From TrEMBL:
The lineage of its organism: Bacteria, Pseudomonadati, Pseudomonadota, Alphaproteobacteria, Rhodobacterales. It comes from Falsiruegeria litorea R37. ATP binds at G170, G172, K173, T174. The gene is dnaA. Oligomerizes as a right-handed, spiral filament on DNA at oriC. It holds the Pfam family DnaA_N. Residues 85-115 are annotated as: Disordered. GO terms for cellular component: cytoplasm; plasma membrane. SUPFAM superfamilies: P-loop containing nucleoside triphosphate hydrolases, TrpR-like. Residues 106-115 have a biased composition (Polar residues). This is Chromosomal replication initiator protein DnaA. InterPro entries: AAA+_ATPase, Chromosome_initiator_DnaA, Chromosome_initiator_DnaA-like, Chromosome_initiator_DnaA_CS, DnaA_C, DnaA_dom, DnaA_N_dom, DnaA_N_sf. Keywords: ATP-binding, Cytoplasm, DNA replication, DNA-binding, Lipid-binding, Nucleotide-binding.
């Protein structure tokens, strides 16, 4: 970074901290160097270094990173000719800015002034009207999380504190948290319920620091009855935010106020989250949302179809489309929902029924992206094991029924669970023609409706392959 750039940044800081603070604390800072992610400034006295560290370091770090520099921490050195410390140099970097990994520090500075809301508007964190318990579909993978969320939403005596919901992307953590908040708001309007993301928590913290309103910040956060912080992994590596979160957390738990937290992984596995924060999070009830299974995905799709039908009452969905989507899109619920929304919009535009052809056309990219890792070879192996025949018999030319049927089952599964075309599948089954594959797939589709054993075999195999 050049001196000139620091000069420009100082002007920004002037606007933020006001003339008095600027003249006293910022103007005397002399930029020395930026090396290995550490921005070094000289200060006239040790006292001043400490003061600036404690009160303005986050802000300076924020501005530096916002201006495109990559700065992990700030160090203050007492000027060599300073009467206070004539010969030595002192690093006065505060705990709050030390040891921050670069990526975290950069993210921490993503806030822009327009992202800040007035501190006293804390109660107004918006909740998504669609995210209620009514619209949440419960299945095996999320039943425990759902039950815990329901319990907390009753607003009775605090039994487990905090409640931590964790799980992968798009599995319903935010949905459940909003559902709790809605429920509490309707059952216990007397309670002061605050929902916000960990990112918003940090922005407000930085804002409070910047505006020198930490007392207001502390007061506001400590006066809530239920605090919900979404995506807590965001504060990992952001030391000063973590510290403030830790104190807020303790103050609320001491007052027996309910805390609900979500994270993308178990607290113990969040990298760069301080141990004391981890251990606090582990004190209550930690429940995970498992990846969705086929049944849950199908349930969610059926539920969403009902909602779309309100907008598109005339649109029909052909049999098998939802099942196909539930099979093929297993990444996350958000993608599943997006696919359905797109299907409805597309079908209404072209005035067609939502059938398999339209689905394949309209969702080609989504289907490709969520392409299963399941391979043709894997399917062949699983099927041969299941029917207790040799792999070579599945691929080979023998037409005996005891080989032909498993072969057709394998072809059917390849069509369902991989994105291979019929000719490609044919090639991997001993160089068979695509019409043979097509016939095999059709045969199994028919048999699934009339032969309970085949339907069960296919289902068992599909589960084994997806597991
Ligand atoms: N069980 C469910 N029933 C109904 N809808 C669900 C369910 N699970 C997830 N969804 C929907 O999937 C979408 C993504 O869910 P949500 O935003 O709650 O995920 P998340 O776990 O918070 O993900 P992220 O980690 O990305 O924040 C939302 O539209 C939500 O309504």
């Amino acid at each position: 970074m050049t001196q000139e750039k620091w000069g420009q940044l100082r002007q920004k800081l002037l606007k933020t901290v006001g003339q008095n603070n600027y003249s006293t604390w910022i103007e005397p800072l002399e930029f020395q160097e930026l090396h290995d992610g550490v921005a070094v400034f000289t200060v006239p006295t040790n006292f001043m270094g400490n003061y600036v560290s404690q009160n303005f370091a986050d802000l300076i770090l924020y501005e530096l990173n916002s201006s495109g520099e990559s700065v992990q921490r700030i160090a203050f050195r007492v000027a060599a000719n300073s009467p206070a410390r004539p010969a030595s140099t002192t690093k006065a970097a505060p705990r709050s800015t030390e040891d921050k990994p670069a990526a975290a520090a950069q993210t921490e500075t993503r806030a822009t002034s327009s992202a800040f809301e007035p501190l006293d508007s804390l109660q107004a964190a918006p909740l998504d009207a669609r995210f209620t318990f009514d619209s949440f579909v419960v299945g095996k993978p999320n039943e425990l999380a759902h039950a815990a969320a329901r319990r907390v939403s009753e607003g009775g005596p605090v039994t487990f504190n905090p409640l931590v919901l964790y799980g992968g992307v798009g599995l319903g953590k935010t949905h459940l948290m909003h559902a709790i908040a809605w429920e509490l708001k309707s059952k216990r309007p007397d309670l002061n319920v605050l929902y916000l993301s960990a990112e918003q928590f940090m922005y407000r913290f930085v804002q409070a620091l910047r505006e020198r309103r930490m007392m207001d910040f502390k007061h506001l956060f400590r006066s809530v009855d239920v605090l919900m912080v979404d995506d807590v992994q965001f504060i990992a590596g952001k030391d000063s935010t973590q510290e403030e979160f830790f104190h807020t957390f303790n103050a609320l738990v001491d007052q027996n106020k309910q805390i609900i937290i979500s994270a993308d992984r178990a607290p113990g596995e969040i990298k760069d989250l301080e141990d004391r924060v981890k251990s606090r999070l582990q004190c209550g009830l930690v429940v995970d949302l498992h990846p969705t299974d086929y049944e849950l995905r199908l349930g969610i799709l059926q539920n969403k179809v009902q909602q779309h039908k309100i907008t598109y009452p005339d649109l029909e969905i052909a049999d098998g489309v939802l099942e196909f989507l539930a099979h093929r899109i297993s990444t996350n619920v958000r993608v599943l929902e997006g696919a359905l929304t797109r299907l409805f919009a597309f079908a209404s535009l072209v005035g067609r029924e939502i059938d398999m052809d339209l689905t394949q056309d309209c969702l080609a990219d989504v289907l490709r992206a969520s392409e299963r890792k399941i391979t043709v070879e894997e399917i062949q192996r699983k099927v041969s094991d299941y029917y207790n025949i040799r792999l070579s018999d599945i691929i080979g030319p023998k037409r005996l029924r005891s080989y032909a049927r498993p072969r057709q089952v394998a072809m059917y599964l390849c069509k369902q669970l991989t994105s291979r075309s019929l000719p490609e599948i044919g090639r991997r089954f001993g160089g068979r023609d695509h019409t043979t594959v097509m016939h095999g797939v059709k045969r199994i589709e028919e048999l699934k409706l009339t032969d309970g054993q085949i339907a069960e075999d296919v289902e068992m195999l599909r589960r084994a392959l997806e597991a």
